[in-house]
Specification:
single chain; 205 residues; mainly alpha; Arc Repressor Mutant, subunit A; 2 domains; two-stranded antiparallel ribbon; 6 helices
Length: 205
């Protein structure tokens, strides 16, 4: 079974890569009001991440890739969270629809999404061939980079194994007659030095 390149990376890692690509598309712009509004009524403050708009846009596009068809209401539920109500039990609240709707409109203007309206089915938006190509190109690029890193690592491991084998062959190689004589003389010199040190120690006592 062939796996899509989009699923090869973790969702947060993929969204970060896609967000960087969306910054290069002129249709995706942060509205001035986006710096002052919360992403939902359950939030305490507006988003503090400077790249929030592009990361949310990347996440929405990935949802469109996974779910095939997305709409504002469904995405509001997807990005909603529980609201802290003090002493009362927490209650789930949907996310802001304005942010999601604006991002969908920008993606549609960029040619990445298109409207989907088939009788008898829920309307929404789906990815265009251009949008699928963009998303899969991000995944394939990262897959190729990871494969290159694995290949380089394997090459380094093979070189290390070859060097270890060479060193082992050298150490296992039998010594020549001259080398044996040199080793024997060295051992005799060491024994003589040890004997002299022992005699010196006995005289001192």
């Amino acid at each position: 079974m062939k796996t899509s390149a989009v699923y090869e990376l973790k969702s947060d890692e993929y969204n970060t890569k896609l967000a960087e690509a969306l910054k290069q598309i002129p249709e995706f712009k942060e509205p001035e009001w986006s710096f002052f509004v919360k992403s939902g009524v359950s939030r305490i403050k507006p988003p503090t991440d400077k790249d929030f708009w592009f990361k949310r846009a990347a996440s929405i596009l990935r949802q469109a890739y996974v779910k095939k068809i997305v709409g504002v209401n469904r995405l509001r539920t997807r990005y909603g969270s529980k609201k802290n109500r003090g002493m009362k039990p927490e209650r789930f609240k949907k996310a802001s629809g304005k942010i999601i709707r604006t991002i969908l409109q920008q993606a549609e203007a960029a040619g990445l999404l298109e409207k989907y309206n088939v009788p008898g089915k829920r309307a929404g938006r789906k990815l265009t061939p251009k949008g699928k190509e963009l998303m899969e190109s991000i995944g394939k690029k990262e897959m190729n980079n990871s494969k290159e890193n694995i290949t380089e690592q394997k090459g380094e491991d093979n070189n290390n194994n070859n060097n270890n084998n060479k060193n082992k062959l050298i150490s296992d190689k039998p010594l020549s007659n001259a080398e044996q004589i040199e080793n024997k003389e060295d051992n005799q010199n060491i024994e003589e030095d040890n004997n002299e040190n022992n005699k010196t120690g006995e005289e001192v006592k």
